[in-house]
Specification:
The chain is mostly helical and 281 residues long. It has a single domain, classed as MetI-like (MetI-like fold, Orthogonal Bundle). The chain is 73% helix and 0% strand. The C terminus is likely disordered.
Length: 281
């Protein structure tokens, strides 16, 4: 067998595996969209149907009438965007300090930041809720935003990426009279685009799909309900068999912003992981 034939067979095998994996990745999304256009009877049919007999586009109108989904959309956008912007700011500033500035206790403090990622989030729920109550923020969007404005993972990711920036580049800026803030704004931030895009995607999706904390906080403040909590109410307020198709319709509406964000920033996503360099801690 010639070398060209071996290479051709290897490429065919690689693409076959990729196509097979992509098929199974896309299939749940395809079924979700298809099921959102079915009637309750078609959803419960056996054997299961993959395509509706007649697309029920009215499901999207009905779900808007059943629950104030646009209001939940607004709350989710406020929370997800606010947390994402805050995390990008705090993580990039802290990452720059840990990577390029020398100060007493830097390594110990960075290891403390790393250690925070080892604790499960559930152990902080009661203390943080109590703090929000003390500050009087339980009836405010601040209770959904403030606990998440600093991310240990975000600081780690930014620090690892900034370590790859040559010190000579920053030193030359200092020689020219630039202070640390100007170096951060004019040199570091433009080079951080791939890592910032990666962190933005992960943070936005995490906050957009967050359920446990918004459920606890909004139990007494329904005007703060986010989309996942609002959709859960759809199954609690009505019979599941009657609203199953509407729940799937609402889920389609929920994933649209996250899919759009990923498609918009996907070229930076892989690049951010590749260039961040996780070797040095």
């Amino acid at each position: 067998m010639s070398k060209n034939t071996k290479n051709l067979l290897w490429e065919a095998f690689r693409y076959s595996v990729i196509i097979f994996g992509a098929f199974w990745m896309i299939l749940p999304f395809f079924w979700l969209f298809s099921a959102s256009l079915m009637t309750p009877q078609e959803l419960l049919a056996f054997p299961p149907k993959f395509l509706p007999s007649e697309p029920q586009w009215k499901n999207y109108v009905e779900v808007i009438k059943k629950i104030p989904i646009l209001f939940y959309y607004k709350n989710s956008l406020i929370v997800a965007l606010s947390v994402t912007i805050s995390v990008l700011l705090t993580s990039s500033l802290s990452g720059y300090a840990f990577a390029k500035l020398k100060f007493t206790g830097r390594e110990a403090l960075f290891r403390f930041v790393l250690s925070t990622m080892m604790f499960p989030v559930f152990i902080f729920i009661i203390p943080v809720y109590y703090l929000m109550k003390i500050f009087g923020w339980l009836n405010n969007h601040l209770s959904l935003i403030t606990p998440f404005i600093v991310s240990g993972y975000g600081i780690f990711l930014m620090r690892q990426f900034i370590l790859t920036i040559p010190n000579e580049l920053l030193d030359s800026a200092r020689i020219d009279g630039a202070n640390e803030l100007k170096i951060y704004l004019k040199i570091v931030l433009p080079l951080l685009k791939p890592a910032l895009a990666t962190l933005a995607i992960l943070t936005f999706i995490g906050q957009w799909n967050s359920f446990m904390w918004p459920l606890i906080v909004t139990s007494s403040s329904q005007h703060l309900m986010t989309l996942p909590v609002g959709i859960s109410r759809l199954s609690l307020a009505f019979s599941t068999t009657e609203t199953q198709h509407l729940i799937l319709t609402a889920l389609v509406l929920q994933i649209i912003p996250t899919v759009a964000l990923f498609l918009f920033l996907q070229r930076y996503y892989i690049k951010g992981f590749v260039l961040s360099g996780f070797g040095e801690v």
